[in-house]
Design goal:
With 253 residues, the protein is mainly alpha-helical. The protein has a single domain, classed as MetI-like (MetI-like fold, Orthogonal Bundle), CATH 1.10.3720.10. It has ten helices and no strands. Helix 2 packs across helix 8, helix 3 crosses helix 5 and helix 8 runs antiparallel to helix 9. The C terminus is likely disordered.
């Protein structure tokens, strides 16, 4: 374990050194900013700059994450209780995943205001991942437990609530982890469409003004935000499904 951590740290250090050399020398052009310059730019911008944009992006991403995942889980549960609509629901999910976000963003921007557009983009981004993960999890429920509930007079909805959702919880949380960066990406793309505030809007302004350092800084802030939210959902997963973590550890051993 220590060797792996050392190799990971050494690899990261090498990448940063090479990145710094490329940024300082400009061998790949002026679009590559050096890490030291990026950090200095982040410190110069500080909370005075990011406090205007971070809350807007977080609010839109959280709203889209919530409603997109609720819709996906609801549709997955509906598929299990009404199998006849499975094909239709999956076709809708595939369509949401295949349509390029940048193609539907202008249409949504023409119909809704900025934050609503970003929230819808986030919801579309997470829908298919959570839908597939939830359906797979629901279908891997213990058949003996399902039969036991039915033997006591339980119907489809009781089986779903008492057995299938419980067994699907690890799969749902795994899908939610994957959905976190997708929601943030959808939000940022939605903010490209003429929004005044938000990390996506700030990124567009920085690009238009050829502010390379700020562009890289905003990109790194978006990456750090996605990573932090991913870790939060991962922590929730470990707390709420400890049996799943134990199963993974046993499988690796």
């Amino acid at each position: 374990m220590k060797d792996r951590r050392f190799l990971a740290a050494a690899g990261s250090l090498i990448v940063l050194i090479v990145w710094q050399i490329i940024g300082v020398t400009g061998v790949l052009g002026p679009a590559i900013a050096a890490p030291v310059a990026i950090v200095e730019g982040l410190l110069d911008d500080g909370m005075a700059f990011y406090s205007l944009h971070l809350p807007v992006t977080l609010a839109s991403a959280a709203a889209g994450f919530l409603w997109g995942n609720l819709a996906a889980i609801g549709c997955a549960a509906l598929v299990l209780t009404v199998p006849a609509i499975e094909k239709l629901v999956l076709q809708v999910g595939i369509a949401s995943a295949c349509i390029p976000l940048i193609a539907i963003a202008p249409i949504l921007a023409a119909c809704f205001n900025g934050p609503v557009t970003s929230a819808i983009m986030a919801a579309v981004s997470v829908f298919f991942t959570t839908l597939v993960g939830t359906i797979n999890g629901l279908r891997h429920a213990d058949p003996v437990s399902e039969d036991l509930v039915r033997a006591y007079g339980g119907g489809k909805y009781l089986v779903l609530r008492k057995v299938q959702l419980l067994y699907a919880l690890p799969s749902i949380l795994t899908a939610l982890k994957i959905a976190v960066p997708a929601a943030l990406l959808g939000t940022v793309i939605g903010e490209f469409m003429g929004q005044e505030r938000g990390l996506g809007a700030a990124l567009v302004v920085a690009q238009q003004s050829s502010d390379v350092v700020r562009t890289w800084g905003i990109t790194l802030v978006c990456s750090a935000l996605a990573g932090g939210c991913f870790l939060v959902v991962a922590a929730v997963e470990r707390l709420t499904t400890p049996w799943a973590a134990g199963s993974v550890s046993e499988a690796r051993a």
